[in-house]
Amino acid sequence: MWLLTFARDGVWTDGKIIYAGETREIKEFNVRDGLAAKLAQKIGVTVALLTSRRSPALVRRARELGIQELHQGSENKLDSCERLIHKFELRFDQVLYLGDDLPDLAPMLRAGITAAPEDAAPEVRKVAQWKLACRGGEGAFRETVERLLRERGDWESIIKDFESGKPQAKST
Known about the structure:
Blueprint (H helix, E strand, L loop, with lengths): L2 E5 L10 E3 L3 E3 L4 H12 L3 E5 L5 H10 L3 E3 L5 H11 L7 E4 L6 H4 L4 E4 L5 H6 L2 E2 L8 H13 L2 H9 L9
Parallel strand pairs: 1-4, 1-6, 4-5, 6-7, 7-8
Antiparallel strand pairs: 2-3
């Protein structure tokens, strides 16, 4: 079993924060990342999202994709990761951590597999095993999931499902 943990801003989004008035925050999500979340869950990978910020838009997106492990207000991502590992009775070597900035360093130094978007902080890219071609918010999550599925040997069966016209996961 794998636990795929990742940061929101800078991984699932391009890291920009757009305010509409005093209270509304607008976020833009990549639909390919959404499909990747569904595909990962389909093969038994637990997807967990860690973010230090709080966002109603993120709650909505996680709900749309069936992501139940949404941890907002997570100031210490290592502590959040350790709680998830304990909850699912895993070890750090069963964690794939996708991070983009300095708060992600501590969990990345412990995770079994680490990945960083093309535009991640240099210190984060330095420790990442998978240096992604995609930037945050532009398919970095999809690239990570696809690589995991290929390495596990699951990618070809997923492609066959889509070729048959009966995919088990739908893009949202």
